[in-house]
């Protein structure tokens, strides 16, 4: 593929591209404190989000990066060692079933009580054996588009992704969870807890039509931002971070959640990995820094996500929420909460077939 011009998003986005390349082999990048290794999404190494850890320990943790949840799980299951990891909610059951994680001691996390209870409303996260998951951040998956090239009426529906007008001009995430959330929404499903065979087939058929328009599947938000900034694509199914990077570079990007069919929400957080190579108390320093009220503004400014702590969210104005696309809106939403593991594996397998042209 040749681009008309190559525009690399600056700042955090550029670091995200470097981190993605390193993450493909799960190598530590920006090595710092050797006593805590954080296995994370590229971009979350921004110091302002966990400034309290630096203030206490004098440096950032050592970070290793990955591009998607399934990649991270496979690397950890294959023996890669880290102290904490940052999966999204639907992955936590896999970590538990594989025996890769242990409960957090919430008595060592003073701000645990400030977490919005809705983010812990699952026995996968919290049961009589303990708290297995500390939710920290949440965001939206919706339509990002070039406002100078794409009329507003074209993105009023998710069917823009199957519109022949945009053949070769769209990008989807290389993430089974996100593309199936898109396909279910587009075919009238807003809850994926009990998907029928008919709903699955309808969504798969729609995804095959969408695949025909795809120029590239993005593996990292910075990659999505690069594709749009370069002019390679005009419409993408995107997380908040991509438009945040583009806006910082003064690119004309819109983030459309209020389509006729709606948008998808997700949340992510940290798990305590068994037999981590670092110091356990530093894992708690890291979590406590993440849950500080100041982390809410830092998270929004750098990545565009909302925070799970009610105290952190109090620091964010309504205007800032609207700008980032995390404000309340009147539109259907599919929450990417933990769904049936068997269905998730079926979706993953079907997505691989679709990407291969089958």
Automatic annotation (TrEMBL):
Coiled coil: none annotated. Residues 1-31 form the signal peptide. It holds the Pfam family SBP_bac_6. It comes from the Bacteria. The keyword Transmembrane helix does not apply. Keywords: Signal. Gene3D superfamilies: Periplasmic binding protein-like II. PANTHER family: SPERMIDINE/PUTRESCINE-BINDING PERIPLASMIC PROTEIN, SPERMIDINE_PUTRESCINE-BINDING PERIPLASMIC PROTEIN. This is Extracellular solute-binding protein. The lineage of its organism: Bacteria, Pseudomonadati, Pseudomonadota, Alphaproteobacteria, Rhodobacterales.
């Amino acid at each position: 593929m040749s681009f008309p011009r190559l525009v690399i998003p600056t700042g955090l986005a550029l670091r995200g591209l470097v981190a993605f390349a390193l993450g493909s082999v799960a190598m530590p990048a920006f090595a710092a404190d050797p006593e805590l290794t954080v296995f994370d999404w590229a971009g979350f190494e921004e110091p302002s989000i966990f400034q309290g850890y630096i203030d206490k320990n004098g440096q950032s943790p050592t970070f290793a990066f990955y591009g998607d949840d399934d990649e991270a799980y496979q690397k950890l299951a294959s023996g890669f060692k880290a102290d904490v990891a940052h999966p999204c909610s639907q992955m936590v059951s896999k970590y538990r079933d594989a025996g890769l994680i242990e409960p957090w001691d919430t008595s060592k996390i003073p701000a645990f009580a400030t977490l919005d209870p809705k983010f812990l409303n699952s026995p996968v996260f919290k049961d009589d054996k303990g708290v297995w998951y500390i939710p920290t951040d949440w965001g939206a998956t919706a339509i990002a588009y070039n406002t100078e090239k794409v009329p507003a009426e074209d993105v009023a529906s998710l069917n823009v992704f199957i519109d022949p007008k945009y053949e070769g001009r769209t990008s989807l995430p290389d993430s089974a969870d996100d593309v199936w959330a898109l396909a279910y929404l587009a075919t009238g499903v807003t809850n994926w807890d009990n998907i029928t065979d008919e709903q699955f087939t309808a969504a798969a058929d729609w995804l095959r039509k969408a695949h025909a328009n795809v120029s590239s599947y993005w593996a990292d938000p910075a990659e999505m931002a690069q594709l749009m900034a370069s002019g390679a694509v005009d419409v993408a199914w995107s997380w908040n971070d991509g438009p945040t990077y583009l806006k910082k570079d003064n690119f004309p990007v819109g983030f459309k959640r209020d389509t006729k069919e709606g948008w998808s929400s997700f949340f992510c957080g940290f798990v305590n990995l068994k037999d981590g190579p670092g110091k356990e108390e530093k894992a708690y320093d890291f979590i406590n820094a993440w849950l500080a009220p100041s982390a809410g503004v830092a998270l929004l400014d750098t990545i565009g996500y909302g925070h799970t702590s009610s105290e952190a969210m109090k620091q964010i104005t309504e205007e800032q929420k609207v700008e980032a696309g995390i404000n309340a809106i009147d539109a259907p939403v599919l929450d990417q909460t933990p769904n049936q593991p068997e269905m998730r594996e079926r979706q993953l397998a079907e997505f691989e077939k679709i990407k291969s042209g089958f």
